[in-house]
Design brief:
single chain; 141 residues; mainly alpha; 7 helices; globular
Length: 141
Amino acid sequence: MEAMISTVKGWHENPVKFARSHGVSLSPEAEESDSGDRGIHILIIEGFLIYNYKPLIDVYDKCLYISLPYEECKRRRSTRTYTVPDPPGLFDGHVWPMYLRHRKEMENNCDRIEYIDGMEPKEMIYNMVYENIQNTLLNSL
């Protein structure tokens, strides 16, 4: 987690330099912002435990969480193909209980989380997140 904080802070200090050093292609607008104008740069961090480490939470401007009910989560997990398949009972005996444990911890650690219904179509979720980010940017000007 410390490495992740360091990486995010490195990006925050100079997003253009960070992108270049990691082989990320930049738009012409982003390249121009390297000349002194900070411009607008967005870093999206995703992961299962990103709200479970308080020092990392402090570097986020926005906290979004896509949630799914038990039945849908189990159904989606059962459709995945793993190199080593899940043994019988893994989801109910380990995966879901750990999800509940970490979600409770997350809710105790971060009171800024905005929840998104993962049952909505992907395009709707994308549009909701996009609009949320746009509104945040407009309100910060």
